[in-house]
Amino acid sequence: MIKPIMDKLIRVNRFHVLMAARRSPAFNTIFDCKPEDYFGFDVATAGTSKIAVIGFPKSGNNWLMGLLSNCLDLQVVDDVNVPQSGVFLTSQPFSSAIYFRKNLRYAVYIMRDLRDIVCSYYHFVGKADHHSAGKTDTLGDHHRQAQFTRIEDFYFEYFLGHLSRLHDFSGHANGYLQFDIPMVRYEALWDDTAGELSRLLSRWGMEVSAEAVQAAVDANAFDKLKKSGKDDKGHKLPTSHMRKGGYGNFRDELPEYVIADIERRFGDYLQRWGYKLTTR
Questions:
Q1: What is the DSSP string of 63-78?
Q2: What is the pLDDT of residues 119-158, one digit of tens each?
Q3: How far is CA 276 from the centre of its chain?
């Protein structure tokens, strides 16, 4: 009973003011607290403090998590409950469960063109390596039943029928970004990885040398990760997460009528976050 009530309350502005001292530090930005309480916090030496990389699956989440792990010398951890400091990723919708996590020190939202996410998701669920024996890729294992030979069938049957309900594409970003947490656009990160990473760290008040940033970029270069199958700290990366990279691939991979349908259904969302429509 309590959680549904709390989930409703966190949508009320007055509630945020009253609960400022109780909510996660990630949602207490410069507008809500003293700068020294938010900026430049050393996560690596602070017990169980975490950084959250938030976004839809197939948005570059693992890539950004690896960049932060290298740059800040943090371990990649499974979730916010692990009893050590580190960086983790989540695609869960915003809720009171994450709002009140006191050990969540920083958060970043990674945004990617939804049309490219459709393409990446299609190829991801069609890969076999997340169904192999031994340790599975948890995300991939959730999609055992999603076997399609045509991307348009995947989109109409599975993306719209299951994934759009699971991830709440229209409201997901607004739920988190209402708190002024930084947003990193996948396309900008692809074009200028060092520049975007530096911008994010600066937003958090972290002084990281250009050399350290570039070292993290080099360690997480797409071709290197795809070839090695693991990051610079030895964390295994299933090949299902490393296909092509880049952006705008939807123009070549999606039939025109599928692009038109995405833009009809999600056009307001795409335009809200700065993506140009191609069919209207």
A1: HHHHHHHHHHT--B-S
A2: 999 988 876 454 443 444 444 455 556 678 899 999 999 9
A3: 21
